Description:
Strand content: 15-25%
Structural class: alpha/beta
Largest sheet: 6 strands, parallel
Low-confidence stretches: 1-20
Mean pLDDT: 91
Shape: elongated
Strand order of the largest sheet: 2-1-3-4-5-11
Amino acid sequence: MKKAFLLVxxxxxxxxxxxxxxxxxIGVSIPTADHGWTGGINYWAAKAIEDWEAKRDDIEFFLVAxxxxxxxVSDIEDLMVKGIDALVILAHDSAPLTPIVAEVYEAGIYxxxxxxxxxxxxxxxxIAGDNPGLGRVAGQWMxxxxxxxxxxxxxxxxxxxxxxxxxEAFEAEIAKYPGIELxxxxxxxxxxxxxxxxxxxxxxxxxxIDAVFAQDDDVLIGVLAAYEESGRDDIxxxxxxxxxxxxxxxxxxxxxxxxxxxxxxxxxxxxxxxxAVFGVTGEPLVGFYxxxxxxxxxxxxxxxxxxxxxxxxxxxxxx
Length: 319
């Protein structure tokens, strides 16, 4: 009887050990929520992990949010100690994060890089929004809305490659219309507070403004506050970017000042997590006929209008 009992224990131990050995470990490293869009990143990362944990019990996730690049490097080192099979990373800053991610990649760990990218090709998959597309869509819509004539001011993001791609694409579209004058374009650091400051200065400096391109919906919050406080009523339209629920709701409700938006979805981190699951487990992409996950995925910059805004509205998201 004792032998039979011991045999059962051995079998259970072996089964448990095999089950544990078969568990996939996926680390997700993202910035802390320092503005609306990164708040959305945190929301969608947690949601994706919750969804996958409900679907599969053989995956263990480790989600870490870092306040600065140095902390993120340290967090990734800790994830490597945990024995992760995959890393999903949205880098605080490309330069300081590239060396540690290179170590991860060279160790044979599956890497999905999201949004900001790295300085070397040290990832299996790169997924991001279409930054030139965001600027291009904004420029096209604004030019059509103004009928090819008017005075515009622009508020940029943080000076970086992403910002440059957006600005150059926007300006290239506007340049097609000689009747449109770009009065000014300054960084607003994707911040509502800085957006307020820059827009307040614009309103004092320029007595006539027909439209504002804020590039980011957080910035647009500050821009609209400055415009309301100014008491002016000459600006015909404001255009942000990224598709926050606040601005999407304005579009849905027919706001006379915010008539459209363009997507740069923070849900891309959730897609990145799913791509990591596909990469390490071999779970097939539905309707995808190749054997490997695509090495690069660029999400379209989609124009949001009153006709389709309901498709992009996520009331539970923080962004």
